[in-house]
Structures are given as structure tokens and as C-alpha cells.
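Section 3.1: Structural characterization of target chains.
Under the original work plan, the team committed to producing a structural model for every single-chain target entering the pipeline before any wet-lab resources were allocated. The record below documents one such target. The sequence was received from the expression subgroup and is listed exactly as submitted; it comprises 289 residues.
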Amino acid sequence: MSLPIENNISFVVYNLETLEKIVSLKLPKVAKVHIKLETGLNRQGVKDTELTKILKFIDKNRKYIDVEGVYTHYANIEDTIDPSFAKKQLSEFNRLLKIVFDMGFNPPLIHTAASAGALLYPETHFSMVRIGFGLYGWWMSIETRVSLMAQNKDLILKPVLTWKSIVAQVKYINPGESVGYGQTWFAGRKTKLAIVPVGYSDGYDRKLSNIGRVIINGKYAEVVGRVAMNMIAIDVTDIKNVKLEDRVCLLGNMDGLKISADEIAKKIGTINYEVVSRINPLLPRIIVP
């Protein structure tokens, strides 16, 4: 708890126990906190029945606690074209915010909007917006894009991420031979395989077994067999000149072709957020100007 305070890092509070811990440290530096208000997501957050008690505690301990911000988070502002629940949450936030003001607090940072709110609803902006997924060029949802178009707004998002690997081995197998664990794929012809050192431990989902695709040498190549912990096999029979250490694009753009996070998400039954956030943080990131 002392680490963020001593390093001037703002952090979230939503219960009395955290505030009591801050005060008990009796540090010479004031803790900068953002109070998370519960408005309907029912995750982290201070409910209206607890807010006054928490504000009174902070008021008595302003020597140790500075309310730098107040905020909330929407439950479905990005995945529906019906904004009624988001507007209900906004109304509740304004009601609770008035309590904060009435208790003598005037936080400089008031924020509710993530990427979808920032794009669609100016009334959610307050003094700060929290641009997240959109900053990296990904659409929050199809509904967000449809809603933006309905407002006669045009926006082009360009994903900043391309995930690549290389060919580690090239081999041929005969008709009837299988590939990978469990023998889930059999060659119907003499098949040229490229082995790529990436797998589910890296964040390349196992559910892409036999349905995923990659880009290599300007062509799409299908994933064949099960995705292993650190290996996949791709069918490059019809792709010319595949050799060791050729680049393989798993996600993103290469050679005029594209594999989107949305495409992968649809295949494995999840959302694009999960696809990109599960890429192993140990994999090297290279910033390209």
C-alpha cells in the first residue's frame, strides 16, 4: 500500500478497509485516490448506502487522503445499440456525484467514458476520458461502429499490432499421415508442412486447432492438427518457396492480407479484447516507426 503513495501513483478505492489501511500507515505523503462509484456494473464500486460513511472518513483524514478523482464504469455501453441502461448508469453517477460535492469535495478528475463512451456520448466525458482498446486501433464492438455510423460519424481505426513468428521446419508427409496430438487431421494428399514455434502458452488459442489461418509469402495457410503448447503446423503445399525462417503473420497485416482479432475471436467464441490481451507478455515487442 505504501508503494503507490510514496511514488505519487494515483489508485482506486472502493471500501473503508483500504482507506483505514492508508491512514494507519501515517505516511508524510498524501495518498491520491479515485473513488469508484457503483452505478450498475456491480463489480468494484461504492454503493450509495456506503458512500456517505466513506466520505466522512476521508473528510476526517484529509491529512492522509486526497480525493483526486471520482468515476464509474458502464456495463454495456459498447455492445448494444440501446443506450438506455448506460444512460441510467450516468443518471445514477450524477446523483452520487452530487453527494460527493455536497460533502465538500471537488475532485479535479471526473471520468466515466472508456473508448465507446468517448466516441458515442459526449455527456459521459466530464473532465477526463479513459481511452483504452480504441487507442490500439481495435473496435470495441460491431454495435459501437453501427451506432457511430447512425450518428453520421466516420472513423477509421487502424490496429497497431502485428503478431509474427517464423518457420522453424519444413517437411513433407504422405497421404493418410496425421498431424499433431490426438491425430485430429489427416493428409488427403502429399502435404508440405511448415512448423511454426508458437502455441497456446504464447496466447495462440488451442481452439484454433484445424480452423486457424496465418499469412505466409503473400498467401493464407491453414493451421492443421492441434495447437500445441509451443508449436503449430500449417499447410503450405500450395504456397511457393516456403523456407526456414520465413515470416509468418498470426494476427494483423502482412503482404496486403489481414487476420483480424475479430476473425480469431469469432472462430474461438470470444471477443477481440481477449484475443489480444492473452498474448504472452514475455514475447518481445518491437516498436516499428
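The first strand starts at residue 11 and ends at 13.
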